[in-house]
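Private note to self, pasted from the team thread so I don't lose it. Backbone tokens:
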């Protein structure tokens, strides 16, 4: 799917808002209504944004940095307006900073340094839909209609965070009367769903148009008068194509087993008009085939992507273009380009399984939000996925179960929950730390509901996924690649429990014994890992993998490392005996520690902060 990019660049901030029919390029000064003195262009950040109150950027373009002062505190406001939109952006905050993203200049999603908070979420926390304000409501009741995020998903100061908003603008009739409120369909913070289908009755506090009537469109605004922040990679997909509609629907039903799509018995069993686009005529017939024909109405030329949910073969042809391709037991979506106007279509559905006939087809365009192509009964209640949350209680809780992890789930793994609210998943096969997260521990519905076929222990909070490579490996030399698979000479020896319930994982690599203890910080903001090595090395070299990323950068002051594109931190204790080295293999950097010498008796401690 092609997104419509708005890239924030240098003083000549360049924005591309791609219109499905007439691509439009905006350049400074037209990209923004104003670019206040508190906003500067930069190519990267330097200094120590984790601790500094002022952000320092290198000359160049790629991101915008906001350092407000008493004299300069302008908002960032686009010169283009939007209605329905899908918005993505990266942002970075300093400690204690505060800002916000205002859809249509009116409805705020809060950007705030609420990192590590464990109290119940509030609308003022990062990702919250901020309160409205009305002094006439009386003292203590001025704030109302805000919505707290489902979880604390904020990352540490100085790290890049990602916000995605799927927004529906308010609806108005021809006379300008509001018929439907604005709605945040979905909001994700750092990949975690924090809002879904949240209506908001009017502009939030400190909006650009707080005292003006609501309108069908408005500009995007990023608050510049509150706190220090940097923004980059902003993309806005404007969703203003008219919905697709159908008319003149007819059907032909072929009862009984059929050879394949469009290879049916000569004469249909029954036929006639169809009130809506569904497989209802085949529901009571058992095995058979259904052909639906009609006219598709396209309001504006666009590129449309179709998808299908079914366990039976299905095919959709529009102007003889393949929009849904049949599979042996299902269907595969395609992308087609359609002009404005009417298009004949044909839908074939072959019912070959004993289960109830079912087919759902969805479609979206570059400027069209996802919609259902097939009929959806408005009285159908949405399916609510079962949930069985598991909490750690007053001591660590360990739960064996398969851990979801791309490209395949980890079969020999364990999830460990902490009363601090910081949790992790550990892989016995590789001795690796797979994932860390905050908030709820795990949802075991996939393990215990019904037959529990998938056996997945799903994290219940915002997660940071790490890597699955062996933590300790034997390399023929420093220049050799790190293994992707479990070490042949590695074996898990289980784990022991401390009196407080903290586990220490035991492993053996040839003649080297490994004790691996991971302890969340008391504030839930970090995880300290202590690896104890005793025994003897082999003739090959033994190394410990601390982290892997596209780039690894030393922290200012030499206290540790910044992993990835400001994704997380590795902190080292001052004066520690082991010194990590950064090496590059296959375009990736690895932070490794050598365990040299024949006899080994060493301890490595580091803290992961995210």
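Design output:
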């Amino acid at each position: 799917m092609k997104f419509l990019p708005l890239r924030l660049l240098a003083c000549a901030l360049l924005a591309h808002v791609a219109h499905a029919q007439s691509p439009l390029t905006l350049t400074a000064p037209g990209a923004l209504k104003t670019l206040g003195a508190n906003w500067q262009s930069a190519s990267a950040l330097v200094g120590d944004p984790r601790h500094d109150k002022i952000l320092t950027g290198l000359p160049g373009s790629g991101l915008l940095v906001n350092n407000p002062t008493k004299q300069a505190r302008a908002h960032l406001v686009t010169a283009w307006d939007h209605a329905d939109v899908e918005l993505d952006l990266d942002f970075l905050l300093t400690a204690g900073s505060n800002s916000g993203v205002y859809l249509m200049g009116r409805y705020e999603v809060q950007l705030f340094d609420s990192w590590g908070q464990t109290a119940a979420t509030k609308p003022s926390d990062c990702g919250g839909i901020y309160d409205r304000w009305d002094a006439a409501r009386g003292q203590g009741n001025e704030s109302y209609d805000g919505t707290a995020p489902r979880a604390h998903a904020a990352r540490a100061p100085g790290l890049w965070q990602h916000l995605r908003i799927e927004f529906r603008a308010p609806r108005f009739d021809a006379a300008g009367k509001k018929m439907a409120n604005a709605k945040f369909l979905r909001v994700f913070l750092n990949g975690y769903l924090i809002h879904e289908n949240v209506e908001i009755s009017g502009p939030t506090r400190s909006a650009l148009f707080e005292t003006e009537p609501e309108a069908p469109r408005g500009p995007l605004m990023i608050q510049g008068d509150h706190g220090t922040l940097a923004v980059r990679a902003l993309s806005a997909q404007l969703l203003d194509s008219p919905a697709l509609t159908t008319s003149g629907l007819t059907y032909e039903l072929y009862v009984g087993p059929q050879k394949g799509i469009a290879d049916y018995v000569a004469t249909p069993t029954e036929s006639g008009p169809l009130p809506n686009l569904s497989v209802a005529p085949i529901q009571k017939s058992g095995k058979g085939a259904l052909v639906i024909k009609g006219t598709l109405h396209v309001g504006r030329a666009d590129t449309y992507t179709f998808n299908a949910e079914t366990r039976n073969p299905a095919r959709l042809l529009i102007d003889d273009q393949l929009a849904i391709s049949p599979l042996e037991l299902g269907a595969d979506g395609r992308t087609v380009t359609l002009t404005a106007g009417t298009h004949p279509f044909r839908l074939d559905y072959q019912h070959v399984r004993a289960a109830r006939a079912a087919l759902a087809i969805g479609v979206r365009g570059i400027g069209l939000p996802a919609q259902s192509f097939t009929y959806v009964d408005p009285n159908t209640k949405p399916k609510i996925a079962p949930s069985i949350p598991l909490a750690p209680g007053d001591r660590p809780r360990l739960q064996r179960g398969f851990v979801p992890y791309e490209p395949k789930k980890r079969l020999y793994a364990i999830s460990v929950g902490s009363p601090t609210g910081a949790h992790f998943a550990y892989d016995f096969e590789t001795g690796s730390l797979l994932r860390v997260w905050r908030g709820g521990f795990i949802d075991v519905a996939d393990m215990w509901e019904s037959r529990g076929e998938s056996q997945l222990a799903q994290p219940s909070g915002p997660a940071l996924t790490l890597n699955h490579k062996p933590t300790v490996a034997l390399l023929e030399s420093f220049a050799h690649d790190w293994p992707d698979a479990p070490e042949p000479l590695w074996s898990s020896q289980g784990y022991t429990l401390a009196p407080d319930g903290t586990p220490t994982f035991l492993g053996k690599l040839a003649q080297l014994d490994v004790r691996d203890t991971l302890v969340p910080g008391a504030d839930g903001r970090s995880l300290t890992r202590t690896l104890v090595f005793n025994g003897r090395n082999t003739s090959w070299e033994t190394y410990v993998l601390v982290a892997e990323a596209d780039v690894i950068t030393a922290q200012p002051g030499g206290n540790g490392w910044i992993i990835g594109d400001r994704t997380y931190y590795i902190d080292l204790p001052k004066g520690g005996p082991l010194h990590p080295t950064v090496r590059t293999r296959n375009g990736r950097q690895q932070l490794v520690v050598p365990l040299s010498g024949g006899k080994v008796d060493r301890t490595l401690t580091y803290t992961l902060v995210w």
